[in-house]
Amino acid sequence: MQQSDGEMRTIPLVDLSAQYRAIKSEIDEAVLGVLDSASFIGGPRLEAFERAFAQGQGVAHCVGVGNGTDAITLLLRALGVGSGDEVIVPANSFIATSEAVTAAGARVVFADCREDDACIDPREVERVATQKTKAVIVVHLYGQMAEMDRLVAIAKKRNLFLIEDSAQAHCAEYRGKRAGTFGAGATFSFYPGKNLGAYGDAGAVGTNDPAVAESVRMFANHGRKKGEKYDHHIEGMNSRLDALQAAVLEVKMRHIEDWTAKRQSIADEYQERLQGVGDLVLPGLFSERPSVSHLFVVRTKQRDLLREHLRTQGIEAGVHYPIALPFLEAYAHLGHTEKDFPVSARLAKEILSIPIYPELSPEDIDRVVNSIKTFYV
Ligand SMILES: *Cc1c(COP(=O)(O)O)cnc(C)c1O
């Protein structure tokens, strides 16, 4: 959109219309193709996307499901994790991660995160694990992969399923290997604002284990095996990726590597230009696991003031997340205090997400950087 009053235009946290405008003809053609085919559930478009996504992520199997939350529940159920089992979840995440554990019938146990990558702290996983622990869910938060070597070792030693909640980490790598290849499987969300986003709710499970993939597919489709209609082997649920969303996602798969590179180059620029500004702490840099920068999260003791300053400058900023999971009302029954999760408690007060998306223009990057600098003068 062309606007003459450039200084007053709000820079959003994400800009989904800019992305649609850039690929409109491809998207429109794919969507109209689905409408013409009148094949809305399952079918060739779903299969094509599942193949493309599995290949892109470097996993053997991808199963499209209804959303990223269901993906976690379905993977837990497929692994046989449920009633009587404990599942370790990072204290610093979106509630979907822990909600999905409860939905599978298991008990949520929180572990604190690390200060430098904001992901689950392997030492805390060891500390909270018990005889009842069956799985640990690692969240590659903000696009930053967690410290997988140590987490894989802990999971192996304690015989736990390692699940990667990769809702924010499409295409992210740890020593050249992508999410989904480290443990039992990875779950993905294609919520519109994610690095790979549908035009509605959508999600997937990626795994190298064909039996796990088949079981997820069965649970997600009323307990049916592939090709069956009224043979229900178990009670499952209805959580399928529909053909319209699959068609949109398949188009977007053609662009995801390019978009990821753009996010990373914007993050590099922020790193360079915001270094040493005021009391800002920038996201940690890990050469063996570069972030795919789903969010660019800075830290400052003056978070609320900086956020308000940016708002007056027409720049949106967000907090991901303002209340760490154990301190939400939903988990009040667990009786946790800030002493139990000191790092997550502190981060929640200091973190601020500034705009980052592939279409963010050089002029807008300038505006964000300069507005932050003027806050500190
Ligand atoms: C978005 C998100 C989810 C849930 O995805 P939905 O598709 O919205 O259900 C799960 N975990 C994390 C870390 C997320 O960011």
Describe the protein:
- With 377 residues, the chain is an alpha/beta fold.
- The chain has twelve helices and eleven strands.
- The chain has a seven-stranded mixed sheet, with helices on both faces.
- A hairpin with a 2-residue loop joins strand 6 (173-174) and strand 7.
- Helix 1 crosses helix 8 (243-253) and helix 3 packs across helix 4 (96-103).
- The chain starts with 15 loop residues before the first helix and ends with a helix.
- The mean pLDDT is 96.
- It binds pyridoxal-5'-phosphate.
- Residues 67-69, 93-94, 96-97, 139, 165, 167-168, 189, 191, 201, 203 line the site of pyridoxal-5'-phosphate.
- Pyridoxal-5'-phosphate binds next to helix 3 and helix 4.
In summary, what is this structure?
The protein is 39% helix and 13% strand.
Q: Give the tally of β-strands.
A: 11
| Beta-strand content bin | 5-15%
Helix content: 25-40%
Average of the residue pLDDT scores: 96
Largest sheet: 7 strands, mixed
List keywords for this structure.
377 residues; 12 helices; alpha/beta; binds pyridoxal-5'-phosphate; two-stranded antiparallel ribbon
Chain-wise SSE layout:
Layout: H1 16-37, H2 44-57, E1 61-65, H3 68-78, E2 86-90, H4 96-103, E3 107-111, H5 122-128, E4 133-139, H6 148-158, E5 161-165, E6 173-174, E7 177-178, E8 185-189, E9 203-207, H7 210-220, H8 243-253, H9 256-274, E10 296-299, H10 303-312, H11 342-350, E11 351-354, H12 362-376
Parallel strand pairs: 2-3, 2-4, 4-5, 5-8
Antiparallel strand pairs: 1-9, 6-7, 8-9, 10-11
Residues 67-69, 93-94, 96-97, 139, 165, 167-168, 189, 191, 201, 203 line the site of pyridoxal-5'-phosphate.
